[in-house]
Amino acid sequence: MFSLMQNAALSCRGTGQAPRETKLMFLGLDNSGKTSLLALLNREPLSDVTSTIGFNAVKLRILDQPCEVYDVGGNARIRDIWPNYFAEVHGVVYVVDASDESRLNEARDALWSSLQHDYLSGKPVLVLVNKRDLTGSIDSRTIAQRLALNQLASMKNKSVLHVTDCTLTDSKRSRVAVLDGFRWLLQRVEEDLEILEPRRREQCALQAEQEARERSEKRERVRQQREARARQQEQ
Amino acid sequence: MGLLSLFRGMKGEKKDLRILLLGLDNAGKTTILKSLADEDITHITPTHGFNIKSVTSSGFKLNVWDIGGQRKIRPYWRNYFDDTDVLIYVIDSADQKRFEETGEELAELLEEAKLKGVAVLIYANKQDLHTAAKASDIATGLNLHTIRERAWQIQPCSAVTGEGVKDGMEWVIKTVSKKKKK
Ligand SMILES: Nc1nc2c(ncn2[C@@H]2O[C@H](COP(=O)(O)OP(=O)(O)OP(=O)(O)O)[C@@H](O)[C@H]2O)c(=O)[nH]1
Ligand SMILES: Nc1nc2c(ncn2[C@@H]2O[C@H](COP(=O)(O)OP(=O)(O)OP(=O)(O)O)[C@@H](O)[C@H]2O)c(=O)[nH]1
Ligand SMILES: [Mg+2]
Ligand SMILES: [Mg+2]
User: Fold this and answer.
1) Which of A73, A143, A161, B72 could form a disulfide with A52 if both were Cys (CB 3.0 to 4.6 A apart)?
2) Which candidate in B86, B111, B120, B154 is best for mutational testing of the A interface (most A CBs within 10 A)?
3) What ipTM score was computed for the predicted complex, to two decimals?
4) A89: which chain B residues are within 8 Å (Cβ-Cβ)?
């Protein structure tokens, strides 16, 4: 119970006074470049990145704004965990591998189902069309069509979207291009804050409540299982 | 594989890592430890106390503590928490009946002050057994999705075939060395 309350408090940290922290989440299929993006922002060597089948949270300053970024695995085997983080974030970066034509439908579906989620709809999304250095990679206009971003932007509870090409390398040029995208995202969060923040707080509270309930139910089930096993062993 | 550059970054720093290997009885902890050390895995019996092994990997000395997971031994786990660099939690991925129980044990571990902020690698072991669960089901069963204050990673593996075991260690080294630099 203690840790749950702590979790809930943590999740909604930054809602009070003090310098506000912007919470962002990186989404996208496996191999699209989410962890590489985080490494670039954090000035870590991109060569050390390996595939994520889990979760990592990193606090860093992006364009002088204190941020916390959630980086999760994009593989189909782990993708179902994404919605657990939607309530907490102010905005999303969706990374697409523009060199992999064969997975664009999958990338579209993963984006659409995320943005249709109650806790994410209406939050700003920066779409990074990545790996543009690779020959044959697809430009952002075409990607926007393939992901059906126009339709997405005209839905009820629509999110504002911003699409930009990028390449993730250790070069300065790459950093500058990426930061341009983040400038848009952070500004957008700032502008929408009066709407985003109360909503986020409310959703965090709802989620914390639900998690607490599930945890105590789970505890009870485990307790019963253990007792049943102990009885079995006595017999 | 990028590990070399990590190694260079660690020059002059402590390269001994203390790794705690925990999990329910029968999860495969001892088998994983032996497999890491390239030892014979055919005659392994339940662990009543603990085993320690030092394995060298990419210039790091990993001191791995494998502690018995039977229910009556679990209260002693806490005697081993000090100075832990990474927690490795082993589960039998084919034993879905016990996901909630193992999740509860893990949740209690993660509440321990001495393990605060320590990254967790989950070895989703026994992947050779075709009934193995997918990563997101393991994450849900173990309540991993409620974790915010530390990194976690699921590494599917089989201690019997050796598949995935070394990959998990690579994540461990990378994650810890990044943290130690700060
Ligand atoms: N050529 C090229 N390769 C890139 C670029 N960005 C990332 N990569 C490579 O793409 C691969 C996947 O990158 P990651 O950052 O691990 O991808 P991810 O989205 O975090 O993947 P998961 O963790 O599996 O979800 C790595 O080998 C990167 O080096 C890019 O702009 N150009
Ligand atoms: N099929 C299969 N069996 C495994 C695997 N890993 C371990 N086992 C078997 O699972 C059983 C338990 O393995 P141990 O290594 O003793 O498990 P442990 O976690 O150390 O158990 P305790 O010491 O009681 O806590 C043994 O019969 C192993 O052969 C695996 O990857 N695949
Ligand atoms: Mg990743
Ligand atoms: Mg053992």
Assistant:
1) A73
2) B154
3) 0.89
4) none
A114-142 pLDDT tens trace: 999 999 989 999 999 999 999 999 999 99
Q: Tens digit of pLDDT for each residue in B3-60?
A: 544 554 444 455 889 999 999 999 999 999 999 999 999 999 999 999 999 998 878 8
Q: Which of B158, B155, B157 is nearest to B172 (CA)?
A: B155
Q: Give the residue among B80, B27, B78, B24 at the shortest CA–CA distance from B52.
A: B80
Q: Tell whether the torsion through CA atoms of A81, A83, A89 and A93 is positive or negative.
A: positive
User: Residue A12: phi, psi to the nearest 5?
Assistant: -105, 15
**Domain extent at residue B74:** 3-181
Structure confidence at residue A21 (pLDDT): 94
pLDDT tens figures, A29-82? 999 999 999 999 999 888 888 999 999 999 999 999 999 999 999 999 999 999
Minimal Cα–Cα distance from A229 to chain B, Å? 11
Q: Give the ligand 2 atom nearest the CA of B69.
A: 25
CATH number, domain of B40, equals: 3.40.50.300
- Split into its structural domains, chain B has a count of 1
Q: Which of B3, B107, B135 sits opposite A78 (nearest CB)?
A: B135
Strands A65-72 and A54-62: antiparallel
Coil, helix or strand for B24?
coil
Q: Closest Cα of chain B to A128: distance in Å?
A: 24
- Is ligand 2 within 6 A of the CB of residue B91? no
Sign of CA dihedral B52, B113, B103, B177: negative
Alpha-carbon distance of A27 to A33, in angstroms, equals 10
pTM over 0.95: no
Cα–Cα distance between A116 and A83 in angstroms, integer? 11
- Cβ contacts of residue A193 below 8 Å, gap of 6+? A90
Q: Is A3 within 8 Å of B111 when comparing Cβ atoms?
A: yes
